[in-house]
DNA sequence: ACAATTATGATAGTATTACTGTTATATTTG
DNA sequence: CAAATATAACAGTAATACTATCATAATTGT
């Protein structure tokens, strides 16, 4: 498994950065530490100046990689979705049975992340926390239509479409394949948030994952039996 | 068990404001025009200075009502949820049949808003757009746990609980009543957003509403027949 | 009526943010 | 080893998100 993926590189739309952070040591330190710092103080309080202080580098140097912290957030979340896509394809590609395939997909989307040693400078567990807490801010902006046209959300949309396709291959008469797909993907993030912060309106306990909820939901929506 | 709404006054937690905006003419102008301005330029670009210019008042006067624009957003979204709660209770209270009741509830949560002439200074249609585009920003913060303790999100959580109760009264063996309730309420907002901005991953057309999707989803989840 | 209270307005000031621009120095490469 | 490139250091700017002070206008209580 490790040898098979040793040359793996997550590809991000070049419009998102000024200079590819994967192309240098400083770039990688920017990515690694921005994840840690955003998780620590939150995206709203996060600045390039603070990041510079953390990595012993200068604010202006960081601006040579990303033109704004907003673009950095888009980069980080795109990286996350791309990484999830690779997990999804890798785990479901060989499965022939549509039911089994979608079951596996739901697992991928709802489970808590684990470290992937293929990408040493990125802590996927922390990154997932960022996606849960900050992803919405990347598209809930006045510029969303323009940035969408520029392909900033392509990987995310491709992931939704992949799940959409799996849904249709289980039941091609189902009328809301896109809605159900985005409900699972975005809803999974949201249920994690509710579990952590609004505990009184969550069915989940601390270390729980919304996997059984979404399996039950999707299986019933598509009229397939749920064998646990 | 919830108490029924006794009048049409929307009550907001007093910790959210410094001075009740309902108590003065200036206060009402702040509410009315902040809704229009946030809708116009987005919450991120919105400032009290710009709002002051719009209403011919001073920045410092607005600060006497709300200590930050964040609190104003909490106020506006709380108002929206409270208004929705009143709609929900008003429309479902007299319905005895649990199926019919939940069907009506889903309609309330998924439909596009219409003007309510009981509140002349608030444009509910525009306010709903704000909730769709900005609500997440009110809780996706580092202060969420503290603010939650202070009751800032109480009305929203009470709404989720009301739907949770309806779900259980249809099927009290259902295992995920809270998750399903928040999926409908928050998912409805999100599906509206996707329809407007990420059209390629939406099943809905321009003037559509996600009502049939959520009805189908909930009815199947709760094993009740869907008679359209 | 009029003093006291309260509400609003005008203005100034502050630390921080989110950058841009310029120059200097260090590192890499051909 | 010169040239190109990358990074660092620093200055500067307009805007943001406030706080603080004082003046004036409107309301209220007796």
Automatic annotation (TrEMBL), chains A, B:
Does the record's keyword annotation contain Acetylation? no
What molecular function terms (GO) are annotated for this protein?
DNA binding
Q: What organism is listed for this UniProt entry? A: Olleya aquimaris
- Record-annotated DNA-binding residue ranges: 47-66
Q: What is this protein called?
A: TetR family transcriptional regulator
Q: Which residues form the HTH tetR-type domain?
A: 24-84
Q: Which InterPro entries does the UniProt record give?
A: Homeodomain-like_sf, HTH_TetR
Alphabetical keyword list? DNA-binding
């Amino acid at each position: 498994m490790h040898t098979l993926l040793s040359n793996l590189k997550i590809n991000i739309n070049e419009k998102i950065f000024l200079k590819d952070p994967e192309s240098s040591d400083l770039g990688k330190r920017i990515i690694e530490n921005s994840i840690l710092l955003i998780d620590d103080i939150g995206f709203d309080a996060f600045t390039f100046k603070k990041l510079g202080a953390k990595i012993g580098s200068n604010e202006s140097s960081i601006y040579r990689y990303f033109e704004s912290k907003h673009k950095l957030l888009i980069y980080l979340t795109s990286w996350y979705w791309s990484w999830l896509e690779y997990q999804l394809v890798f785990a479901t590609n060989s499965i022939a049975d549509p039911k089994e395939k979608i079951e596996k997909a739901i697992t991928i989307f709802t489970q808590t992340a684990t470290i992937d040693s293929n990408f040493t400078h990125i802590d996927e567990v922390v990154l997932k926390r960022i996606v849960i807490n900050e992803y919405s801010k990347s598209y809930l902006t006045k510029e969303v239509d323009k940035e969408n046209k520029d392909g900033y959300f392509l990987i995310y949309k491709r992931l939704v479409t992949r799940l959409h396709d799996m849904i249709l291959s289980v039941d091609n008469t189902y009328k809301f394949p896109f809605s159900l797909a985005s409900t699972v993907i975005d809803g999974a993030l949201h249920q994690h948030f509710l579990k952590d912060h609004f505990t009184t309106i969550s069915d989940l306990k601390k270390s729980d994952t919304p996997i059984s909820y979404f399996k039950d939901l999707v299986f019933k929506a598509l009229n397939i039996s749920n064998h646990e």
